[in-house]
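Structure in, sequence out. Go:
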């Protein structure tokens, strides 16, 4: 049985790392932690990622995490942040972030949970 190796928490909070564009990586690490069953660490990493990143993917993964934690009001709030960005985005960014808009529109607890479960199997 293989043990899951963990990246040190200090990586996400290191000022040197934060000066580079590792925002998406921190968000994906948080997403992996939430899938791996460590909600406390995932919460800390998501907070760090959302403080420095505005990626819709990170916002959506955080909303999915919150929905899985039965925190539906917060999950809807983060999904609404994705939709609120759309009207002010240039077209090239709208195209890049297009997959996250429809997913955020049905931001109730069950739809977020079912979509996040589907993405695990892809």
């Amino acid at each position: 049985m293989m043990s899951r190796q963990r990246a040190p928490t200090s990586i996400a909070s290191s000022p040197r790392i934060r000066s580079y564009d590792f925002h998406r990586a921190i968000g994906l690490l948080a997403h992996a932690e939430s899938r791996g069953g460590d909600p406390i660490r995932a919460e800390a990493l998501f907070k760090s990622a959302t403080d420095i990143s505005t990626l819709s993917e990170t916002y959506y993964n955080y909303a999915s995490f919150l929905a899985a934690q039965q925190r539906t009001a917060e999950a809807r709030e983060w999904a609404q942040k994705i939709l609120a960005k759309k009207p002010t985005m240039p077209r090239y960014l709208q195209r890049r972030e297009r997959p996250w808009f429809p997913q955020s529109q049905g931001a109730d607890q069950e739809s977020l949970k079912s979509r996040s479960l589907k993405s695990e199997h892809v």
